[in-house]
Amino acid sequence: MSSQPPHPALLIPGPIEFDDAVLQSxxxxxxxHVGPAFVSTFGDTLSMLRKLFQTSHASSQPFVISGSxxxxxxxxxxxxxxxxxxVLVLHTGYFADSFADCFETYGSRPTQLKAPIGSxxxxxxxxxxxxxxxxxxxTVTHVDTSTGVLSELKGLSELVRRVSPETLLIVxxxxxxxxxxxxxxxxxxxxxxxxxxxxxxxxxxxxxxxxSGRAIETFKNRKTPPGSYFASMKNWLPIMxxxxxKKPSYFATPSPQLIHALNTSLTQxxxxxxxxxxxxxxxASQKVKKAVTDLGLRQLASDSADQANGMTAIYLPExxxxxxxxxxxxxxxxxxxxxxxxxxxxxxxxxxxxGVSVTDSNRDDIDRAxxxxxxxxxxxxxxxx
Amino acid sequence: MSSQPPHPALLIPGPIEFDDAVLQSxxxxxxxHVGPAFVSTFGDTLSMLRKLFQTSHASSQPFVISGSxxxxxxxxxxxxxxxxxxVLVLHTGYFADSFADCFETYGSRPTQLKAPIGSxxxxxxxxxxxxxxxxxxxTVTHVDTSTGVLSELKGLSELVRRVSPETLLIVxxxxxxxxxxxxxxxxxxxxxxxxxxxxxxxxxxxxxxxxSGRAIETFKNRKTPPGSYFASMKNWLPIMxxxxxKKPSYFATPSPQLIHALNTSLTQxxxxxxxxxxxxxxxASQKVKKAVTDLGLRQLASDSADQANGMTAIYLPExxxxxxxxxxxxxxxxxxxxxxxxxxxxxxxxxxxxGVSVTDSNRDDIDRAxxxxxxxxxxxxxxxx
Lengths: 385, 385
Fold this sequence. Notes:
The structure is a homodimer.
Chain A: E1 9-10, H1 20-25, H2 36-52, E2 61-66, H3 69-79, E3 86-91, H4 94-105, E4 109-114, H5 123-132, E5 137-141, E6 143-144, E7 149-150, H6 154-163, E8 168-172, E9 191-195, E10 206-211, H7 213-220, H8 233-244, H9 256-270, H10 274-294, E11 311-315, H11 322-331, E12 334-335, E13 337-338, E14 348-352, H12 356-359, H13 365-379
Parallel strand pairs in A: 1-12, 3-4, 3-5, 5-8, 8-9
Antiparallel strand pairs in A: 2-10, 6-7, 9-10, 11-14, 13-14
């Protein structure tokens, strides 16, 4: 029996449904942010992130900072790029535009490589771009929350290492960490930024990231000071290193309650092999995608190789309106999200299938959601052709 | 009976002890950040902040952003000052140095007006400084968490309006909002930045601020774009206005659980007259300060007019060491903080007396802490002369 009151299952691409124990950790009694008990909890949490990202290099550096996923962009743009640096931004939807804005704010020069909606830039185009100009960083949105497009990282990394080995490879993993396979060391990633409220399964309020030793060296070799104060690695690096060494340290007050919840969530995730977790997400995703196809509907991500395992973006039939369907589904106890990609926002919905909704066998969120979608569509007048 | 497990009373100058209902709100089941239920909760929370800050001008603008108190500095420095602008920073301890660093990060030029430890810059010096140079902003730490020094805002505001009326008056109220009287409109303040975990009584993780219509106009009239992305008012202003108008809006995902907790805390605070709340804090503070004097100890804030009502910074006797006394007090069930001002950190302790520890008559935190301090000091060898 869940300790949560009955409520509609939140099946948007984040925030997701949370486990009882994680939510209970949010109510932890107040502790000093520099007291030994909390310092130990925070230190363990940082160490667990190394396992989640599959990195065993001592030089890799985790960061957990009060904020949102967006703060990760500042962490990258204000610390790893310097004014005037060129940055190649692979575009798969809404989030690349914003990441590019963030780079511009701090004075670097983003070049966007855009793909048609529902697709992603292909390796030959990326190779061409990398050969045309020297890029300090290349960024890729692992799963674009606005389109459900999954980018392939292993081949991308091999390409970058071959064609432009000094370029740092930065992954926006806000909608992928915890639900998609990420091998930080093996794929030679330089940075993955994410947030707490999606695949990691902890309430929103934390910016979570991992950077390679090479990225940290790039930061340390800056010629100009970091462009942000709150997102400055100069301010945060010693704090993260101290907490992980179980030494109290202060730059800005962390949120003990959120860190406890993250600790609980990571402990749960790491209690089983990560490969199993990713397999369960793939299976659930296949079930959802099959149901979508069976309903005669199309996904934004047209190529099956480009489809995320933690969410599905679904084009609605011509005669079905988002503001009609979503309240109908809400009444059936499931919450989906509307469209986010500005060009086609009114034409599609997003179904998130991450975390306990797919990993907890006591939950039937996904089956109920598929059923609600079938019934709901027919109730608002859709008949499969 | 509290629903919290037995634990030592956290009496540091933030985070503070939290009310049961506030902590329970932290465990709220997951909700969409753009769904009508949460949008309404967030909107109400923003409106309640207007009452807490005592502002009824429609042009005043509240902001609640995932982050920490420190983020408030970026909000000021990256939006209200432009590169090259002069800023006068009144210095009462640790926090002015950091706020000045933050201004420098974004290219403005801070001038610090420093007072001896335990004191604050006096009005005649401030007047002289304001006449020497044109300052875009003047910042003051209302309560300096490192020294327990309280700055007086009403007279300061009158001075600024008389001598340099265009200068924006910005208050760092991280350790004062909720425990010290603040009359945003009457005192003609232009900005007050704070955090959730002190006088407001909600767990850490939120940057909370209020800006005047004049400050927002100053932002809108910038000649250069904001210096930060995550802390950009350009990105956040429409979001805050939409939430308060109960319209869904998205820039970065807020933390529904923290916003619920803040909503609960503000509802509790505003259920009684604010004047009563401030009077209770003053009384508790007087009790603590009398006990300190009775023990033959001195405060960092030497002048009683400069002493905060939510915390007390206490010089230890010569022969008593912080690392000896604090664990002794911990065993007695109370947690105090060590020193923070780098010049004298080893010589003093800090006792926070804010929020439910003073307002909840079912709690005896303050009396227990005073008693623990008396006994603890004698156990580590101190005898009043």
